[in-house]
Write a structure and sequence with these properties.
Elements lengths: L5 E4 L5 E4 L7 H6 L12 H9 L5 H4 L4 H5 L9 H10 L7
């Protein structure tokens, strides 16, 4: 299977290749990654998925079930252990 990647340029002028319709610039995403905190543990797609839903605190995250979080576009099963650990560190957990 061949993947056709197209050259794109973001509004900041970064040049990158993408094979999907996703407009996110990987350079810009890397630059906005937090240096610390629980969101810094996640990949850019997983972090963006949570931010898109307004989930920017562990308290807010704890109001969702694991199943609901996995349904978010960009969230994969590899992120769940990191999220569970962050919640546990604050005495929280996913909603059952």
């Amino acid at each position: 299977m061949t993947t056709n990647k197209t050259l794109r340029v973001c509004v900041q002028g970064h040049r990158y290749y993408k094979s999907s319709d996703c407009p996110t610039c990987p350079v810009c995403e890397g630059e906005r990654k937090p240096e610390s905190g629980w969101l810094s543990r996640l990949s850019s797609p997983a972090r963006s998925a949570l931010e898109h839903e307004g989930i920017t605190t562990l308290q807010k995250l704890s109001s969702f079930s694991e199943r609901e979080i996995l349904k978010l576009h960009g969230m994969g099963p590899a992120s769940l252990p990191k999220l569970r650990e962050a919640l546990q560190e604050e005495g929280l957990s996913f909603r059952q």
